[in-house]
Amino acid sequence: MAKLLPIVILDEEILKEIVRYYRINTKSEDWNPKEFIELECFSNPSLELHECNYRSKLLGGHDCKFCSHKFGKPCSMSCHLQTFCLAIYAQRMGIGGKEIEEAIENNLYKMKPEELYDAVIKKLAIGDSNVVEVIEENDDVELFTISEAAKFCNCSYSNIYNSIKAGVLPNVEKDSRKFLKKKDIEVFKKNRNEEK
What we know:
Radius of gyration: 17 Å
Low-confidence stretches: 127-131
Number of domains: 2
Distance between the termini: 32 Å
Mean pLDDT: 85
């Protein structure tokens, strides 16, 4: 079972690395660093969604007409920071090194994006495919049991359990029990409703 380190906040130091990696022209009138600072989804991508992963199909299993699921092709539906985000997500899983700086160097400059993605998927597939984020005692996060999540989403226990096993729903561990974050359940419920 892979354990995730805590979410990495996109701060000014990380943004400098993003600027370096993507070779962003910070003198451009379009550049607004404030729109990226503390981006909520950073370092915690939903790899099953096209917004976070160009390889994934759109909801309903449709192909994206903007990028055709090809790396490096601009896409108005997909996040432009996804490779960097994936590199930090990988670091949270122990891929590329324990320190952020080391992982950035290894995951972004020594690995190709497909190699990085394959390493993350392989790590997710180890054991029972569960990725567990350890919640510290002082974390102020609303957590659901699998049963509570199923009731909230109006679906079966098995549906939630299988989504966790498939890596669609990240789970967290507290007192050796599995829980789901409310924000993850809300996204899952919204996506289910849109697919209907």
